[in-house]
């Protein structure tokens, strides 16, 4: 078990490193260097950046030296919490990002919990009550989750909400709480707005997991140990929940590891459509206006947080039930 | 002869699918007396396993019992027809394990690999007796010792994949007997085991039967096992019983051509070297293409055209408790 | 008792079983596939869409780039199938411009007195069929007038461009991007997956780790970043190519896993060992023995990967980071529908969602059916 832990940790570190490399490439891909853009933007805003300041910036980022040096300097700066300045907002990147990153992760985690909570019983039900009305209903919902891209779903939901209920289903806060500091009331407001984006975000994951759970369970239900359990006089519900579900859970649990990156990805798009105050709209905006310091920082932070989140959830899973891991290693 | 503890009368279990109906068990009758070992023998696909599952009402969909009776005499001498009980009802569940225990042929996959054998044993014990967890655990260790598992106090926390095939089968037997049933059905309990382990398991079953006064139904395709273990035999073919009787009568005076062919096909140590192995010609017909009349007639060495392919032979008594369903004997009976 | 041979033996196997026993693998796969009604219907739908894509220029009737602000946001025109005399005479009402004297805004409204006849194979705007043959015949048009000014089956967008024609052309772009993207993914996937599965060892470990890493990173932000880095100076064709490359960097992992899995399973198969023992060369084993047995799995994986490609391109274009005008794709068209107020004014802009959903569902069912049929011996 320890060996498995160590392997996961090493892999996580390598993944984070890979993310930094790719992010750096994205940062430097557009033509020109971002200091020029920064200076140009700043002067357009009316703030003058002296030549000395510009030169200092160039030096700090190593823009006059080789790419390797630039990479190292950039990495170094970030390790010290220096993510640079967004030239568009003329504020430090960390300030611009603000709460958004945490809200993104909160939304993603909420969606994942919803996914688990819903996919498991639906999957079991679909397998045990094949061809029933409920099964067909869930299959249909599953198709929606499968076939409709998340942004489209969000769009349609928004449109219908407006058309039929005259409600704006977007946003995570009501206008009054939007800029207010955190308080109990703000938290409640957030919780009230969470269900719609959470469900839209969770739908593809639910569709996927229900499919897997259903297929696995159908396989397991035919196995001899289920029959022996029944032959012992166990009640049907207990037979299903204690034995084949437990076996079907194994492969199910391992797919959950990839759920977080998928969900975080999905949240970017949905937050654009639903105008959520998460990282999504900010990222899109920064990329379109080529504010690369901001954009690449967001990409980097998202990636790192996702890797950490996946690692933590893997460890949690392992802690909750060591037999899952034992089963895998066997 | 004591009153039978289990009486199967004209049982019919059919599998109703899109492509047709498979009549897996199509009119089987036999009796099981207390303390007796009854063997059910036949080729693969003759309906032996489905019979066992029908008795316990655990036939998988789309299989259903469509006719017949399964009469169980309970400890208080009352008789209940198992076909009339709801399969998932409390009564049937009590009978499963509590009155009738079942051992399967696949020790490899008949135990959950995610639960310790102790967990599964204790569950079986507590289903039918009000015992605390600790008391149940003690009982479980006793059971493991009874079936001959070494170091039961440690082994109780083992997982099934940590045990060999023979040990697993012993655990299966312990599980089947955990609730002290009076009947044990063993469906090909030794088929998946090597010969030495086979002998051990059979010996175990015999010993347990004597110690506990069990009535045993032993299902197998191995005539050697039948000869060694059983008192009475039922020979099945395509869902019907074609012959039944005391084991001596079956072996020394087989009446049905199928029984004779089965016996003839057993390779013998005493046979001439390089002599051909006798086989039964043909193969089991496709379930949707049953032959009319007597189901065995296409492969029967004593086939009588005009008789055997027209009607189904009724069962004819041949000796004491010995009967066969064959026109050969009907003719003889009417002639006599 | 004499042993007489049984006469009139029932046939050992039935007629149907004989057919099955001697059928080739391809036939078996086809039969099995045919049983999945849904998959067969989906195949037909997919085929129909691609035919439509091939003849996109013929089916479109309106100049896709002819924008006229005055024509903006015209709602879909109803077709009047029967005229006043009850004859079958499909017509649409022509639009009459009217200038609001207060706002000076020109708006169009249908004029019942001025009708245009709908015609099949009518003249329309000039184009080159398959890029080769200059012609101006379109599937639909109006016989007494200019289709571009008169026919708006799905309404118009903000720039006054006919939505129906743009949708047809967008279908062509989106479907072909999917194909090209899948081909690139296939090359990458088969190459890396094949090497990984066939040779094993540290190559396998490295490729496996790379795939694992790629799967644990949220892909959308990365692709957004890459897409945004495409210089604005590039031509639409160059952008198209770049987007395809970016998208195929998404799908190759899944294909690689399938290919690797198949190779690993195949390596253990006895018939491969038999071929090796018979002295067949490595290359021969790969192409003559292994490839045919997993070809159907690959085809199934492709038809499941295509919808992912289409979704990726549509999403990127929707966000504004994908194809750039004047290229038209489903995502580009849906971009117009981003604004809720606009949607309220012109809900017909959402019509591009319909082919997206249909095609994705169809490909998924098709892929499922193919996957089930791919192993006829299973």
SSE topology:
The complex is a heterotrimer of chains A (330), B (336) and C (378).
Chain A: H1 2-28, H2 34-45, H3 51-61, H4 67-79, E1 85-86, E2 91-92, H5 93-97, H6 100-128, H7 133-147, H8 150-165, H9 175-178, H10 184-193, H11 195-221, H12 224-231, H13 236-242, H14 244-256, H15 259-273, H16 279-288, H17 292-320, H18 322-329
Antiparallel strand pairs in A: 1-2
Chain B: E1 6-17, E2 20-32, E3 37-41, H1 48-55, E4 63-73, E5 79-81, H2 90-98, E6 100-103, H3 117-128, H4 133-146, H5 152-155, H6 165-177, E7 183-187, H7 195-212, E8 215-220, H8 223-229, E9 232-237, E10 240-246, H9 247-252, H10 257-264, E11 316-319, E12 322-324, H11 327-335
Parallel strand pairs in B: 3-8, 3-9, 6-7, 7-8
Antiparallel strand pairs in B: 1-2, 1-4, 4-5, 9-10, 10-12, 11-12
Chain C: H1 15-22, H2 25-35, H3 37-54, H4 56-59, E1 80-82, E2 88-99, E3 106-129, E4 133-142, H5 147-150, H6 163-199, H7 201-215, H8 219-228, H9 236-267, H10 270-277, H11 282-319, H12 330-335, H13 340-345, H14 353-373
Antiparallel strand pairs in C: 1-2, 2-3, 3-4
Helix pairs in contact in C: 2-14, 3-6, 3-14, 6-7, 6-9, 6-11, 8-9, 9-11, 10-11, 11-14
Largest sheet report of chain A: 2 strands, antiparallel
Beta-strand segment tally of chain A: 2
Strand content of chain B: 15-25%
Major β-sheet annotation of chain B? 8 strands, mixed
The amount of beta strand of chain A, in percent, is under 5%
The CA-CA distance between the termini of chain A, in Å, is 11 Å
Structural class of chain A: mainly alpha
Which tags fit this structure?
heterotrimer, A: 1% strand, C: alpha+beta, four-stranded antiparallel β-sheet, 58% helix
Describe the 3D structure.
- The complex is a heterotrimer of chains A (330), B (336) and C (378).
- Chain A is 78% helix and 1% strand.
- Chain A has helices spanning 2-28, 34-45, 51-61, 67-79, 93-97, 100-128, 133-147, 150-165, 175-178, 184-193, 195-221, 224-231, 236-242, 244-256, 259-273, 279-288, 292-320, 322-329, and strands at residues 85-86, 91-92.
- Chain A has a two-stranded antiparallel sheet.
- In chain A, strand 1 and strand 2 (91-92) form a beta hairpin.
- In chain A, 39% of the residues are buried.
- Chain B has 11 helices and 12 strands.
- An 8-stranded mixed β-sheet of chain B has the order 6-7-8-3-9-10-12-11, with helices on both faces. Chain B has a 4-stranded antiparallel β-sheet with strand order 2-1-4-5, covered by helices on one side.
- Chain B has helices at residues 48-55, 90-98, 117-128, 133-146, 152-155, 165-177, 195-212, 223-229, 247-252, 257-264, 327-335, and strands at 6-17, 20-32, 37-41, 63-73, 79-81, 100-103, 183-187, 215-220, 232-237, 240-246, 316-319, 322-324.
- The two termini of chain B are 28 Å apart.
- Chain C has 378 residues and is an alpha+beta fold.
- At the A-C interface, helix 1, helix 7, helix 8, helix 15 and helix 16 of A face helix 7, helix 8, helix 11, helix 13 and helix 14 of C.
